[in-house]
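Bench notes, afternoon.
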Amino acid sequence: MKILKIEENKGFFSIDGSQWTEIDEIDKDNLMSLVNLVLESSPEMDEYNETNIGNQAHQIIYKSIHEKLTVLRENKDKFKDESDRLYLGEIEKYQAGGS
């Protein structure tokens, strides 16, 4: 599934792979959804290329989101391991029925 694309000189994002929204309309909930998609799977993203995006606001937003999601995708195993370790004690406590 693709979550970021460049088309018609604009950047777009999608949470479901079918409905596309211009990148400058993204909000924090959409951003969290994209982060979760990257952590749960390996979604596709068009590479950032400023010559393919005519709108300067779209360039800035698309570039920033693409870079951060790429870093997250490259480090997702490390991120998941650190998260698991961080909450391991609490998880074990609740699995054992403790309070």
